[in-house]
Amino acid sequence: MESPLSDLEGIPDLSFRANLRQRVQNNLDSHPQINGEDQSLRKASVGIIIVESQEGKAGFILTRRSKGLRNHSYQYALPGGRIDLGETREETVLREVREEIGISVSSNEILGCLDEYETRSGFSITPVVLWVEDLTTMVPEPNEVDEILIIDLEELFRNDSPRWVDIDESEKQVLQLPIKNRLIHAPTAALLYQFKEVGIAGNLLRTDHVEEPIWAWK
Fold this sequence. Notes:
Elements: H1 18-30, E1 42-52, E2 58-65, E3 76-77, E4 80-82, H2 89-101, E5 110-113, E6 117-118, E7 123-131, E8 145-152, E9 163-165, E10 173-179, E11 182-185, H3 188-200, E12 210-211
Parallel strand pairs: 1-7, 10-12
Antiparallel strand pairs: 1-2, 1-4, 2-3, 2-8, 5-7, 6-7, 9-10, 10-11
């Protein structure tokens, strides 16, 4: 995979420019993607959407789920949802992004996919990476999304990230990603962690060793 172009502080160049888009796409093309093995799990896909944040920096979209949702209400998440019958995972992401946050994304804005992540709550989630330049129609669908956040990609490279926590209920460690003044947990944290390592840094990283907090198991 392509080595990251680094600045003097050792952080990759995260400007919202064509060279970052090409680097991410090259790294995803080179990644030996794996699918989940448990066929009883419900298939879902989510979008890791790279956008311009501020002052020419690249960021990604993070949402906070509506308080009124039955499952995982008010948790931080990436836009996405269950794959409907006859849909591909890419088609699901394009539909869900439009429904949840109002952005119409075309297939040529898809850069690639990462590994499926099997959750304790019964889903096998594929992250689909998108590069989106037009956010003029972005608006939260209030029945699904309470808040839309644009987070600088630099947050994924913080010195205090990632954090690993032992729990009695599992041999695996729970992953936490400090983002702004929040802690993001798996499954969302697992997908973002792999995106950082594979998509941006060009490293080989799997996520089957990543545990979720107990409150996310249901």
